[in-house]
Sequence to fold (444 residues):
Amino acid sequence: MSALKKSANITIAAALAEAEERYRRENPKSLRLYEEALRVMPGGNTRTSIHVDPFPLAIERGEGAHLFDADGHEYTDFLSEFTAGLYGHSHPRIRAAILEGLERGLNLGARGALEAKFAAALCARFPSLERVRFTNSGTEANLMAVSAARAITGREKILVFSGGYHGGVFYFRGGHNKINAPFDFLLGRYNDLEAVEALVAPHRDNLAAILVEPMLGSGGSIPGERDFLAGLRALANAAGAILIFDEVMTSRLAPGGLQEALGILPDLTTLGKYLGGGMSFGAFGGRADLMDRFDPRRPDALQHAGTFNNNVLTMSAGLAGLTEIYTPERARALNAFGEDLRASLNESVRQAAVPMQFTGRGSMLSVHMTARPIRSAEDAAKGHKGLKDLFYFDLLGRGIWFAKRGFFALSLALDEEDGERLREAVEEFAETRAPLFAEAQEAA
Ligand SMILES: Cc1ncc(COP(=O)(O)O)c(C=O)c1O
Fold:
C-alpha cells in the first residue's frame, strides 16, 4: 500500500528527506549488501548508471516483468535493463536458445554456425544495413564506427550532441566527460539545425562523422525532429562526412528502427542492447562500400578483432529473439502499447494540472518535472531535480521499477494491467505532491 501523505505545507527537501528515510527503513538488507560492496568496489559499483543515492537496492531475481529484491519486495520492471531486457526475464525461447548455444560449446575460436544467419537477419531488418560486424557492447560498436569513419575519410572531427550518450567513453550529458575517448569532438545542440550548421561551418573539410541518436535515449527520451535529422543527413552529404545513427536503444522503436520509421538512412548504424537477446552485444554496420573496408582479404583492410565478437550465446539468443520473438508485428504492438501508455500518463498529469510530462516514443519514455516543451537536453535540465527524485522514491514505494533519472523502457512481458498500475502510481504522485510544484516553479 502507498505510504504517501498529502504534501501540503512541507518543502520538496523535507518530502525528499522523509521519502529517503522510509527507503532506508524498508531496505536494510540492500543497505548491508551495499556496505559490503563498498569495501571492494568504488562506490560499491561497477556501472555508474545504476548507482542510486543513498544506496541502490539489491535485486536478487527477475521473472517475466517482475523483480524481487533482497528485502522481499516485488517490483514491476518498467526499466527493462535500460532497453536491453526487451524480452522480459528468462523468456522461455531465449533460455532455450542459450541452452542450444551451450550444447554447441563455448567458445570455439572459429567462425560459428550462427553468426552469418544473425547478420543476415539484422541486414534484412534494418534498411541501411548492407553489411554488419559484431562487438561486445554498444560502446565498442560506437568506438569502431567512429574510428572507421576517421580512417576512411582521413578527417578528425566528430559531431555529437549535448545530452547524447553512446557509451561510457562517449558521454555528453552536461557537456564533455573527462574520461571520454580522445576523439576531436564538436558538441552541438540537439534539434537545433541552424546552430549545428554554424558550429560545423569552420570545420566542414575536417568533419569525419556525425554521431547521433535519432532519439536521445538516456538523455531524456527526446525525439529527434525529422527536419533536424534530415538536415544532418544533408549536412553529412554536403561535407563528405559519414552519418552514424546510434540505434543501440532506438532500434526497438519500429521493426526497422527509427531510420525506417523516419525514412532517413544513415551511412553507418550502431546497435546493441536487446538485439543480443540479453547477452553482451553490440554491432556496427551499414553501406557495403564502407563496411567492406574491414574485409580481411584486402591488402589495406581495417582491423577489427575481439575474442567474444561472435560468442556462441549471444549469436544464439540474438538470432532467436529477433527472428522468433520480436517480429515486426510484435515490434509494432509493443510500440503502440507504449504510445497509448505515454498518452494516458500525460493525460493524467494534465488533469491533475501539475507541470510535468512524459516524453518519448513507443516503448521508451521519460518523465520531466516541467510542462515546457522539451527539444533538447538543455530544455530537459530545466525540470526540478528534487521533484524527480521524489517521484522515484514514491513510485518505488508503489512497486514500480524504473531509472532514477526518470527513464522507462517497456518489455514484452508487461501487460495492460501493469500499464494501469503505473498510471495509478503517477496519478497518486500528481495528486499528493501537487502542492510541491508551486515551490518548484518559484525556483525555476
Ligand atoms: C544510445 C546508446 N548508445 C550506446 C550505448 C552503450 O551501450 P553498452 O552499454 O552496451 O556499451 C548505450 C547504453 O546505454 C546507449 O543508450
In short: The chain has 15 helices and 16 strands. The CA atoms of residues 7 and 433 lie 5 Å apart.
